[in-house]
Design a protein that fits this description.
Elements (H helix, E strand, L loop, with lengths): L25 H16 L4 E3 L9 E4 L11 E12 L2 E5 L9 E5 L2 E7 L5 E7 H14 L10 H18 L3
Antiparallel strand pairs: 1-2, 2-3, 3-6, 4-5, 6-7
This protein binds nickel (II) ion.
Length: about 170
């Protein structure tokens, strides 16, 4: 396993749409275990392909600290089948270090994704699991949590965001 470098706000790959995974091979499994390792080392609960500059539709989530049944898992080619309810929760992102803000998202979602073996799974997620899934799913479409915050919050965070962009855009 290897720890991968995480790209930060200002890197163009964070704003691109990631491509479907078509091959469920050893390379994909290695990518997933490296992403899980990278997420753990950085104390994250989720990490998406584009954040390690891999523009593939894959993300990993680890909520084991909250629920022992939620061991680190990879989600490949995820889709959101339905959304309901609404909930406000504070979010952060490993690609936008030091910034946290309230984001409104659906409280319950029905999702479909593939495992690393290509098996199709359908699940209903709620609470923090739904929250992290939606945050990571956004990454696959070039969307960041700061795109969902209020104009006022955005204005308040603007200097901080600019600083991150300037210090990382050339890396
Ligand atoms: Ni993120």
């Amino acid at each position: 396993m290897a720890v991968l470098p995480i790209i930060k706000l200002g890197h163009p790959s964070l704003r691109k749409r990631a491509e479907e995974v078509t091959e469920f091979n050893d390379e994909l499994k290695e990518l997933a275990s490296n992403m899980i390792e990278t997420m753990r080392v950085n104390d994250g609960i989720g990490l998406a392909g584009p954040q390690v500059n891999v523009l593939k539709r894959i993300f990993v989530i680890d909520l084991e600290q909250i629920d022992e049944n939620l061991e680190p898992r990879a989600y490949v080619n995820p889709r959101i089948l339905s959304e309901s309810g609404s909930e406000v929760m504070e979010e952060g992102c490993l690609s936008i270090p030091g910034v946290r803000a309230d984001v409104t998202r659906s409280a319950e979602i029905e999702v479909e994704y593939q495992t690393l073996e290509g098996e199709v799974i359908q699940e209903t997620l709620d609470d923090l699991t739904a929250r992290v899934f939606l945050h990571e799913y956004d990454h696959l479409n070039g969307v960041l949590f700061i795109d969902h915050i209020s104009p006022l919050q955005r204005k308040l965070l603007a200097p901080k965001l600019k600083k991150i962009e300037e210090s990382h855009s050339l890396v």
